[in-house]
Amino acid sequence: xxxxxxxxxxxxxxxxxxxxxxxxxxxxxxxxxxxxxxxxxxxxxxxxxxxxxxxxxxxxxxxxxxxxxxxxxxxxxxxxxxxxxxxxxxxxxxxxxxxxxxxxxxxxxxxxxxxxxxxxxxxxxxxxxxxxxxxxxxxxxxxxxxxxxxxxxxxxxxxxxxxxxxxxxxxxxxxxxxxxxxxxxxxxxxxxxxxxxxxxxxxxxxxxxxxxxxxxxxxxxxxxxxxxxxxxxxxxxxxxxxxxxxxxxxx
Length: 251
Known about the structure:
By secondary structure, the chain is mainly β. The protein contains four helices and 15 strands. Strands 1, 2, 3, 4, 5, 6, 8 and 11 form an eight-stranded antiparallel β-sheet that branches. Strands 7, 9, 10, 12, 13, 14 and 15 form a seven-stranded antiparallel β-sheet that branches.
Protein backbone atom coordinates (compact mmCIF):
# COMPACT_ATOMS: atom_id res chain seq x y z
CA UNK A 1 0.00 0.00 0.00
CA UNK A 2 1.27 3.47 -0.91
CA UNK A 3 0.36 6.52 1.16
CA UNK A 4 0.93 9.92 -0.45
CA UNK A 5 1.26 12.87 1.92
CA UNK A 6 1.61 16.61 1.29
CA UNK A 7 -0.23 16.51 -2.02
CA UNK A 8 -4.01 16.60 -1.74
CA UNK A 9 -3.68 17.71 1.90
CA UNK A 10 -1.30 20.54 0.96
CA UNK A 11 -2.96 23.98 1.48
CA UNK A 12 -1.10 25.28 -1.59
CA UNK A 13 -2.66 22.62 -3.86
CA UNK A 14 -6.30 22.79 -4.95
CA UNK A 15 -8.43 20.42 -7.01
CA UNK A 16 -10.02 22.77 -9.55
CA UNK A 17 -11.76 20.18 -11.73
CA UNK A 18 -12.66 16.52 -11.59
CA UNK A 19 -14.25 14.14 -14.09
CA UNK A 20 -14.15 10.36 -14.09
CA UNK A 21 -10.81 9.24 -12.72
CA UNK A 22 -9.07 12.53 -13.53
CA UNK A 23 -8.42 15.44 -11.19
CA UNK A 24 -6.82 18.74 -12.17
CA UNK A 25 -4.52 20.07 -9.45
CA UNK A 26 -3.53 23.72 -9.34
CA UNK A 27 -0.73 25.23 -7.25
CA UNK A 28 -1.84 28.55 -5.76
CA UNK A 29 1.73 29.84 -5.51
CA UNK A 30 5.05 28.73 -6.93
CA UNK A 31 7.04 28.31 -3.70
CA UNK A 32 10.22 27.05 -5.39
CA UNK A 33 11.57 30.39 -6.58
CA UNK A 34 14.79 32.31 -6.14
CA UNK A 35 14.72 35.72 -4.41
CA UNK A 36 15.36 37.55 -7.66
CA UNK A 37 12.29 35.87 -9.21
CA UNK A 38 9.93 36.33 -6.27
CA UNK A 39 8.27 39.52 -7.54
CA UNK A 40 7.51 38.16 -11.02
CA UNK A 41 6.32 34.87 -9.50
CA UNK A 42 3.95 36.72 -7.15
CA UNK A 43 2.32 38.73 -9.93
CA UNK A 44 2.17 35.66 -12.15
CA UNK A 45 0.13 33.90 -9.47
CA UNK A 46 -2.16 36.92 -9.13
CA UNK A 47 -2.79 36.79 -12.89
CA UNK A 48 -3.69 33.07 -12.76
CA UNK A 49 -0.35 31.93 -14.22
CA UNK A 50 0.04 28.79 -12.12
CA UNK A 51 1.37 25.28 -12.34
CA UNK A 52 -1.24 22.59 -13.04
CA UNK A 53 -1.13 18.81 -13.10
CA UNK A 54 -3.50 15.93 -13.84
CA UNK A 55 -3.79 13.21 -11.20
CA UNK A 56 -5.37 9.99 -12.49
CA UNK A 57 -6.88 7.36 -10.19
CA UNK A 58 -6.88 3.88 -11.72
CA UNK A 59 -9.25 1.23 -10.41
CA UNK A 60 -8.54 -1.71 -12.70
CA UNK A 61 -9.04 0.44 -15.80
CA UNK A 62 -6.60 2.18 -18.16
CA UNK A 63 -5.66 5.63 -19.47
CA UNK A 64 -3.74 6.76 -22.56
CA UNK A 65 -1.46 9.79 -22.18
CA UNK A 66 0.70 11.93 -24.41
CA UNK A 67 4.23 10.56 -24.77
CA UNK A 68 6.58 11.92 -22.11
CA UNK A 69 3.76 13.30 -19.96
CA UNK A 70 4.13 10.87 -17.02
CA UNK A 71 5.78 12.29 -13.87
CA UNK A 72 5.21 9.45 -11.39
CA UNK A 73 2.96 6.47 -10.75
CA UNK A 74 2.21 4.46 -7.62
CA UNK A 75 0.59 1.12 -6.90
CA UNK A 76 0.07 -1.82 -9.24
CA UNK A 77 0.21 0.28 -12.43
CA UNK A 78 2.00 -0.91 -15.55
CA UNK A 79 2.71 0.87 -18.82
CA UNK A 80 2.40 -0.52 -22.32
CA UNK A 81 3.23 1.09 -25.65
CA UNK A 82 -0.40 1.01 -26.80
CA UNK A 83 0.80 -0.50 -30.11
CA UNK A 84 -1.08 -3.56 -31.35
CA UNK A 85 1.27 -4.92 -34.01
CA UNK A 86 3.34 -3.61 -36.92
CA UNK A 87 0.31 -2.43 -38.88
CA UNK A 88 -0.95 -0.42 -35.92
CA UNK A 89 2.50 1.19 -35.48
CA UNK A 90 2.64 2.13 -39.17
CA UNK A 91 -0.85 3.64 -39.03
CA UNK A 92 -0.08 5.64 -35.91
CA UNK A 93 3.21 6.87 -37.41
CA UNK A 94 1.31 8.23 -40.41
CA UNK A 95 -1.29 9.79 -38.11
CA UNK A 96 1.42 11.50 -36.06
CA UNK A 97 2.83 13.14 -39.19
CA UNK A 98 -0.61 14.44 -40.06
CA UNK A 99 -1.75 15.69 -36.66
CA UNK A 100 1.55 16.70 -34.96
CA UNK A 101 0.77 14.21 -32.17
CA UNK A 102 3.24 11.60 -30.97
CA UNK A 103 3.04 8.27 -32.80
CA UNK A 104 3.19 6.21 -29.61
CA UNK A 105 0.95 7.21 -26.71
CA UNK A 106 1.63 4.93 -23.74
CA UNK A 107 -1.30 3.23 -22.00
CA UNK A 108 -1.25 2.81 -18.22
CA UNK A 109 -3.45 0.17 -16.61
CA UNK A 110 -3.97 -1.34 -13.18
CA UNK A 111 -4.81 0.01 -9.75
CA UNK A 112 -3.06 3.02 -8.28
CA UNK A 113 -2.31 6.62 -9.20
CA UNK A 114 -0.68 8.30 -12.16
CA UNK A 115 0.55 11.92 -12.11
CA UNK A 116 1.25 13.86 -15.28
CA UNK A 117 4.00 16.46 -15.72
CA UNK A 118 3.20 20.02 -14.55
CA UNK A 119 2.27 22.67 -17.08
CA UNK A 120 1.40 26.35 -17.01
CA UNK A 121 -1.30 25.80 -19.62
CA UNK A 122 -4.92 25.40 -18.62
CA UNK A 123 -6.32 21.86 -18.52
CA UNK A 124 -9.88 21.13 -19.63
CA UNK A 125 -11.67 17.86 -18.83
CA UNK A 126 -14.35 16.75 -21.30
CA UNK A 127 -16.82 13.86 -21.47
CA UNK A 128 -16.10 12.38 -24.91
CA UNK A 129 -19.43 10.54 -25.04
CA UNK A 130 -21.36 13.81 -25.04
CA UNK A 131 -19.65 15.09 -28.19
CA UNK A 132 -20.62 12.56 -30.86
CA UNK A 133 -16.92 12.49 -31.70
CA UNK A 134 -14.58 15.10 -30.24
CA UNK A 135 -12.18 16.72 -32.73
CA UNK A 136 -9.14 18.56 -31.33
CA UNK A 137 -6.90 21.27 -32.69
CA UNK A 138 -3.29 20.23 -33.25
CA UNK A 139 -1.16 19.47 -30.19
CA UNK A 140 -3.83 19.88 -27.48
CA UNK A 141 -4.29 16.21 -26.51
CA UNK A 142 -3.01 15.33 -23.03
CA UNK A 143 -4.78 12.16 -21.86
CA UNK A 144 -7.93 10.07 -22.22
CA UNK A 145 -9.61 6.97 -20.86
CA UNK A 146 -8.50 3.69 -22.37
CA UNK A 147 -12.06 3.17 -23.64
CA UNK A 148 -11.70 6.15 -26.00
CA UNK A 149 -10.73 5.44 -29.62
CA UNK A 150 -8.44 7.81 -31.52
CA UNK A 151 -8.87 8.48 -35.22
CA UNK A 152 -7.55 10.95 -37.78
CA UNK A 153 -10.10 13.03 -39.67
CA UNK A 154 -9.40 15.08 -42.80
CA UNK A 155 -10.83 18.44 -43.76
CA UNK A 156 -13.31 18.44 -46.60
CA UNK A 157 -11.37 20.82 -48.85
CA UNK A 158 -7.69 20.02 -48.42
CA UNK A 159 -6.49 22.54 -51.04
CA UNK A 160 -7.84 25.59 -49.20
CA UNK A 161 -6.48 24.31 -45.90
CA UNK A 162 -3.01 24.08 -47.45
CA UNK A 163 -3.30 27.63 -48.79
CA UNK A 164 -4.25 28.86 -45.34
CA UNK A 165 -1.22 27.19 -43.72
CA UNK A 166 -3.57 25.12 -41.58
CA UNK A 167 -3.17 21.45 -40.78
CA UNK A 168 -4.92 19.08 -43.17
CA UNK A 169 -5.87 16.54 -40.49
CA UNK A 170 -7.03 16.56 -36.89
CA UNK A 171 -7.15 14.05 -34.03
CA UNK A 172 -10.69 12.84 -33.23
CA UNK A 173 -11.75 10.99 -30.08
CA UNK A 174 -14.72 8.59 -30.15
CA UNK A 175 -16.52 6.40 -27.66
CA UNK A 176 -17.16 6.81 -23.96
CA UNK A 177 -14.71 8.15 -21.42
CA UNK A 178 -12.92 11.29 -20.28
CA UNK A 179 -10.34 13.39 -22.13
CA UNK A 180 -7.92 16.00 -20.79
CA UNK A 181 -6.84 18.68 -23.24
CA UNK A 182 -4.60 21.70 -22.89
CA UNK A 183 -6.03 25.14 -23.52
CA UNK A 184 -4.50 28.62 -23.86
CA UNK A 185 -7.29 30.03 -21.67
CA UNK A 186 -9.27 28.72 -18.65
CA UNK A 187 -12.59 26.93 -19.15
CA UNK A 188 -14.47 30.02 -17.91
CA UNK A 189 -13.15 32.03 -20.87
CA UNK A 190 -13.86 29.49 -23.58
CA UNK A 191 -16.75 30.58 -25.79
CA UNK A 192 -19.19 27.76 -26.57
CA UNK A 193 -21.14 27.82 -29.83
CA UNK A 194 -24.00 25.38 -30.32
CA UNK A 195 -24.99 25.02 -33.94
CA UNK A 196 -28.37 23.70 -35.03
CA UNK A 197 -28.14 23.11 -38.77
CA UNK A 198 -26.23 26.38 -39.16
CA UNK A 199 -22.67 27.58 -39.72
CA UNK A 200 -19.86 29.34 -37.84
CA UNK A 201 -16.88 31.16 -39.39
CA UNK A 202 -13.71 31.81 -37.39
CA UNK A 203 -10.65 33.71 -38.57
CA UNK A 204 -7.68 31.57 -37.53
CA UNK A 205 -7.37 28.42 -35.46
CA UNK A 206 -9.10 29.82 -32.37
CA UNK A 207 -11.36 26.77 -32.00
CA UNK A 208 -9.73 24.21 -29.72
CA UNK A 209 -12.39 21.47 -30.00
CA UNK A 210 -15.56 20.74 -31.95
CA UNK A 211 -18.11 18.00 -32.55
CA UNK A 212 -17.23 15.35 -35.10
CA UNK A 213 -20.72 15.77 -36.54
CA UNK A 214 -19.76 19.18 -37.94
CA UNK A 215 -18.46 19.61 -41.48
CA UNK A 216 -15.15 21.49 -41.15
CA UNK A 217 -13.68 23.37 -44.12
CA UNK A 218 -11.35 26.30 -44.83
CA UNK A 219 -12.78 28.89 -47.22
CA UNK A 220 -12.34 32.43 -48.48
CA UNK A 221 -13.94 34.96 -46.14
CA UNK A 222 -15.99 36.35 -49.03
CA UNK A 223 -17.07 34.84 -52.33
CA UNK A 224 -14.50 36.73 -54.39
CA UNK A 225 -10.77 37.35 -54.06
CA UNK A 226 -11.44 41.08 -54.44
CA UNK A 227 -13.94 41.01 -51.61
CA UNK A 228 -11.47 39.19 -49.37
CA UNK A 229 -8.82 41.81 -50.12
CA UNK A 230 -11.23 44.68 -49.36
CA UNK A 231 -12.39 43.11 -46.08
CA UNK A 232 -8.82 42.62 -44.94
CA UNK A 233 -9.47 38.94 -44.27
CA UNK A 234 -8.27 35.93 -46.23
CA UNK A 235 -9.26 32.36 -45.42
CA UNK A 236 -11.51 31.41 -42.50
CA UNK A 237 -12.37 28.15 -40.76
CA UNK A 238 -15.99 27.19 -41.36
CA UNK A 239 -18.02 24.76 -39.25
CA UNK A 240 -21.38 23.62 -40.66
CA UNK A 241 -24.15 21.38 -39.36
CA UNK A 242 -25.30 20.52 -35.86
CA UNK A 243 -22.87 20.32 -32.98
CA UNK A 244 -20.69 22.30 -30.56
CA UNK A 245 -17.53 24.40 -30.98
CA UNK A 246 -15.26 25.53 -28.14
CA UNK A 247 -13.34 28.70 -29.06
CA UNK A 248 -10.60 30.54 -27.20
CA UNK A 249 -11.02 34.34 -27.40
CA UNK A 250 -7.24 34.68 -27.68
CA UNK A 251 -4.60 32.47 -29.29
